[in-house]
Amino acid sequence: MSYDNTSTIVTRASRVADIAAQHAEEAEAARRLPQQVVNAVREAGFARHFVPRAHGGDEGGFGELSSAVFLVGEGCASAAWAASLSAYAGRYAAFLPEEGQREIWADGPDALVAAALMPSGTAERVPGGWRLSGEWKYISGVHVADWALACAAVPDEPSADPEGRPEVRYFAVPAADFTIKDSWYSVGMRGTGSDTLVLADAHVPEHRTLARSAVHAGRAPASDARCHIVPMYAVNSLPFAAPLVGAVRGAMRSWTERTASRVDRRGRAVGEQPATQVALARSAAETDAAELLIRRTAAVADGIESPPEGEAAVRGARDLALAVELLVSAVDRIFRTSGTSGQSQTDPVQRFWRDVNSAASHVALSFETTGAAYGAWALSERR
Predict the structure, then answer these.
(1) How far is CA 166 from CA 19, 75, 201, 264, in A?
(2) Lower CB density within 10 Å: C or N end of the chain?
(3) Pairing, β 122-126 against β 113-115
(4) Percent of the chain with pLDDT over 90
(5) Which of 191, 192, 194, 197 is nearest to 175 (CA)?
(6) Residues 281, 15: Cα–Cα separation, whole Å
(7) pLDDT at site 40
(8) What angle do CA 87, 93, 99 make, to 5 degrees?
(9) For the segment 197-246, what is each residue's pLDDT rounded down to a tens digit?
């Protein structure tokens, strides 16, 4: 598989990584990204990456976005997470009716969108649209979002679900309509600013809502671009897995720079010891393997590769969950071999280690769930 790593978003990603690294400690202390980092993410083209060309966007690919996110993660995992999720939130907004899209991107394709993907709150149909109230936790980038997509179940609406579950919809609300509850006190990924979105009787017109099933099926109303016709199962975990590749690489780089000059209590160079060299080699190999799994999933989403028939719905999620397990193993090893100095609050290794382990707990990255789905499919094929 191959990707054009000369695309604009990839060539600009290194600058974002540098700026994010410079402000990483500030982001941790503030529990959100500084404005300089937010500006760099926006200027690099992450927000516009999946926006329809009709609204000035790039209609970009999943592979090139993953490459860019890898690079940003080497500077700061929180910045990479924010960049990745802002791009995918823009993709969800592309499934809105055309009038809703025009409203979101009225000032251009670089509007930052935050997405609450799990149903919460209450949505009540009213004349001309909906009334939306409630709280949505863990909304990354909510402080800098121009718009938010809030997800809610609508039990009184007809549903096409074969099991009779209520319809679930996304509702686009401008920043002026929501408030934010300070709730993000996490051990890792502190800079993501994943606080709680609060809505109180917000009116959402019909043209600013869409059925979640349309996103799951890959049925954008006004675009036939590849990025808008990909079913959700093909890319569901990509935005969460990709930032961790860069984070582990950032940990290895910081660790290598310090280890190259370390000596043990006997005055021996730590970097010349076989155990140290093998630890680095194993972590580097695990990271490379994880990247290959992520790139393969992106290649399928981009239409570059096609899995065997029937496997497409379960292989990608399995691969991404395993990739994250490999990345956790890699960064844990780097942290364990860092010595006491690696646990200093000012050492980037411990920050990357906390970030990777925190992000890996995301429900979409559970190998128990995704592995069970794959195993059930594979065994059913043999019956």
Answers:
(1) 44, 42, 21, 62
(2) C
(3) unpaired
(4) 81
(5) 197
(6) 28
(7) 98
(8) 140
(9) 999 999 999 999 999 999 999 999 888 999 999 999 999 999 999 999 99
pLDDT in tens, 42-101: 999 999 999 999 999 999 999 999 999 999 999 999 999 999 999 999 999 999 999 999
Q: Which of 261, 264, 262, 315 is nearest to 293 (CA)?
A: 315
Token pair of 93, please? 């907004």
Closest by CA to 187, choosing from 300, 356, 53, 46, is 356
pLDDT at 64: 97
Question: Distance between the two ends of the chain, CA-based, in angstroms?
Answer: 33
Structure tokens at 22: 């410079």
The residues, ordered by sequence, that sit 6+ positions from 101 with a Cβ below 8 Å of its Cβ are 52, 54, 55, 93, 94, 222
User: Which residues share a beta bridge with 180?
Assistant: 197
What are the pLDDT digits (tens) for 158-188?
665 666 678 999 999 999 999 999 999 999 9
- Residues 354, 381: Cα–Cα separation, whole Å: 40
Q: Using CA atoms, how far apart are residues 46 and 79, in angstroms rounded to an integer?
A: 11
